[in-house]
Amino acid sequence: MDNLLAARTQMAISLMFHIIFAAVGIATPLMMFVSEALWLRTRNPVYLDLTKRWAKGTAIFFAVGAVSGTVLSFELGLLWPQFMKWAGAIIGMPFSLEGFAFFTEAIFLGLYLYGWNRVPPLAHLFAGLAVAVSGAASAVFVMTANAWMNTPRGFQLTEGRPVNIDPIAAMLNPAAFPEVLHMLLASYAAVGLAVAGIHGYVLLRHPGDRFHRAALVIALLVGGPAALLQPISGDIAARMVAETQPVKLAAMEGQFPTEAAAPLRIGGWPDPERGETRWAIEIPKGLSLLAYHDPNAVVRGLNDFDPSLHPPVEIVHVAFQVMVGCGTLMAALTLLTGFLAIRRRGLPENRLLLRALVLASPLGFVAIQAGWFVTEVGRQPWIIQGVMRTSSALTPMPGLVLPLTLITLVYLLLGIIVVVLLRQQVLSTTPTERRAGEASPHA
Fold first, then answer.
1. How many CB atoms lie within 10 A of CB 396?
2. Could you read off the pLDDT of 109-121 as tens digits, one per residue?
3. Do 21 and 61 contact (CB within 8 A), yes or no?
4. Which helix (H) or strand (E) holds 259?
5. Given CA atoms 60, 61, 66, 68 in this order, what sign does their dihedral have?
6. What is the rounded CA–CA span in Å between residue 261 and residue 211?
7. pLDDT at residue 401 above 80?
8. How far apart are CA 258 and CA 19, in angstroms?
9. Furthest-apart CA pair in the chain: how many Å?
10. Number of helical H runs and strand E runs in the chain
11. Are 234 and 374 in contact (CB under 8 A)?
12. pLDDT tens-digit profile of 147-161?
């Protein structure tokens, strides 16, 4: 394995691991806040028990996410020193603001965890809201930096170096809003439906458990609306890509020729040698309509670009199809859930729905991982679109296979620890024990 492949693999594994904790850190505090608000309103001890358990889960993910995020920050400097040297002055502001949001989240999470019975109830609830807002803010600032790599703005080039740097303009680049919106909704949808699936699994075995029934409803309230809005944000992001990264759009859709009224392809396998996507289902004029809101618009294909500028088409196209497929299934399941709720069909008692939620529980995280493959691999061979190639940013340090192996083992160990801790949080008491505990207050 050469150094470039080893560095890209290490960065990919680190991102794939960290993005799980980032998504949970965005969504779980919101569920925690909703649960405590219901506790304060109803004084139902089930909501208090649920709030405290989600608070512990938030703390676990925050701690591990801090470790994996720190590893990523080191990797940026160690694996891609030329990138940091070139772009540091431009993207330093969003990363600094992300650090501010991170410390704000840490402060309020500490107040939340240790403030029970020590601060007024509304102040404690506000601390939970601050954790949710600062967690989302961290994602906003990181995503603006990543969006800048896709649509670099806020500087001028002089002899290959950035001058007249405007960090605000860099943060407000064309890809910032679509990427931020898409990632936030993806996090709420993925975590909400995953949590619903976990509690749905327990309800299949213990239908009368009030703890898991309450958790299921709150998780669906957080994840369901986000899953329905996600296709809209995907449309916004796709139109941005069509305008700013046409070669990425062509790879996403397996579009080789430049043509008007381009079809939308479902499935298929791109064949760069033959210049076609085989075995795909084609919807006439679909791509032109979705990308430009004009069924007869011209879509530039991969054949229009130098082959050295093509990303790995097979990876990008398949990852895009997986992301869209998972998102579509999640939206459809949400619509079904909403229909049953409107018809007053008891959601926790509907075993078919519970089984569907269990089966769909990993789809959101699969979609997030696939989406990051589309975003990062689809930008190749550029680390900064049109400005710096990934190979030019690589460290000259040899022997990157060893740190790749060690970091992968560390991530596997951390993953096992998190799964064990979370399993204890969700399944540590039986339904009988929990119902017995509801007779006395928890705070």
1. 7
2. 999 999 998 999 9
3. yes
4. strand 259-260
5. positive
6. 53
7. no
8. 35
9. 73
10. 15, 10
11. no
12. 999 999 999 988 889
pTM of structure? 0.91
Separation CA 373–CA 319 (nearest Å)? 6
Question: CA-based angle 63:105:416, to the nearest 5?
Answer: 20
- Amino acid 206 reads H
CA distance 261 to 248: 18
* CA torsion angle 7 10 12 13 (round to 10): 170
State which amino acid sits at residue 366. V
CA 314 to centroid of chain Cα atoms = 22
- The span from the CA of 57 to the CA of 422, in Å, is 7
Alpha-carbon gap, residue 268 to 251, rounded angstroms:
12
**First-to-final CA distance of the chain:** 56
289: Cβ–Cβ under 8 A, 6 or more apart, which residues?
264, 295, 297
Peptide linkage before 381 cis (omega within 30 of 0): yes
Sign for the CA dihedral angle at 23, 25, 30, 36 comes to positive
Assess contact for 171 and 94: CB atoms under 8 A: yes
* Residue 335 Cα to chain centre, angstroms: 21
pLDDT in tens, 246-282: 999 999 999 999 999 999 999 999 999 888 889 989 9
For residue 205, the tally of other CB atoms under 10 A from its CB is: 9
Q: How far is Cα 179 from Cα 182, in angstroms, rounded to an integer?
A: 5
Please state at what angle helix 401-427 crosses helix 3-42, rounded to 10 degrees. Answer: 20
**C-alpha 159: how far from chain center:** 37
Q: What is the pLDDT of residues 291-335, one digit of tens each?
A: 999 999 999 999 999 999 999 999 999 999 999 999 999 999 999
Contact 302, 313 (CB under 8 A): yes
The Cα–Cα gap between 211 and 188 comes to 21
State the pLDDT at residue 345: 63
